[in-house]
């Protein structure tokens, strides 16, 4: 069985400390004899942060555009290239500070249509002093973008906490909780945090040296605060039953896509779901492409959706 590659997205506004945290993540995994890989996105033509990443870490750069705008379609290709070339144990996507995290999530999940990957979650690093300033001004694109980055996070680092007064820390916690009451909030200075504890707070299955996540472990992981759920099918499913499941998805799921084999048609289909409208296209994919469905939303029940999909596979219809 192919290894399922865990993927983490690292988000946060410019200067928040993302690259500092990235270095600490790399050190953490290397100490476990694991091979991390990195995809770095920069909106300009030059990325100086790349000089801070260790030479032995497989890395690719996406320059001259934000992933969520001009180069989003290339992200899945870069993930595929890293997996095929370097076989990393884990991948981190560090997004440019002006990226919309929901669009990055959508870009990463494109790769799940033909690769065994597991999107673990989104780590958002927040500059505490900058957030407090923007909150007081209550306006502008930067403020709205920081809101979105916080709202989408699986775990939040309130970084540079030493630059605000003690009474302002309570204000920051209240602000963050009003935008995202689900994600654990970790105060930090220079992103100096317990990495194991941070990843554990995401309820992510950490890769262990010398082993890989099995498909069943991936499917049975339980975490109801998750924006992306990827389901790999072991069996073909009935087309009408699947269409009924899609028609009754909760409103918290606003995007889905996948490749499926239908038992009653003996054909494979690409399906897309957006704005509560499904679309199916008959395809003949080349190579070893798994049957998979990817669901994107906010705070929906991953476990309930997994149960419903497994029930389809087990049905004798």
How would you describe this protein?
This protein is an alpha/beta fold and 317 residues long. The protein has two domains: 197 residues, P-loop containing nucleotide triphosphate hydrolases (Rossmann fold, 3-Layer(aba) Sandwich), CATH 3.40.50; 94 residues, CobW-like, C-terminal domain (Hypothetical Protein Yjia, Chain: A,domain 2). It has ten helices and twelve strands. It has a seven-stranded parallel beta sheet with strand order 3-2-4-1-5-6-7, sandwiched between helices. Strands 8-12-9-10-11 form a five-stranded antiparallel beta sheet, sandwiched between helices. Strand 6, helix 6 and strand 7 form a beta-alpha-beta unit. Helix 2 crosses helix 3 and helix 4 crosses helix 6. The protein is globular. The relative contact order is 0.14. About 14% of the residues have low confidence.
List the defining traits of the structure above:
317 residues, alpha/beta, Rossmann fold, Hypothetical Protein Yjia, Chain: A,domain 2, 2 domains, seven-stranded parallel β-sheet, five-stranded antiparallel β-sheet, Metal chaperone
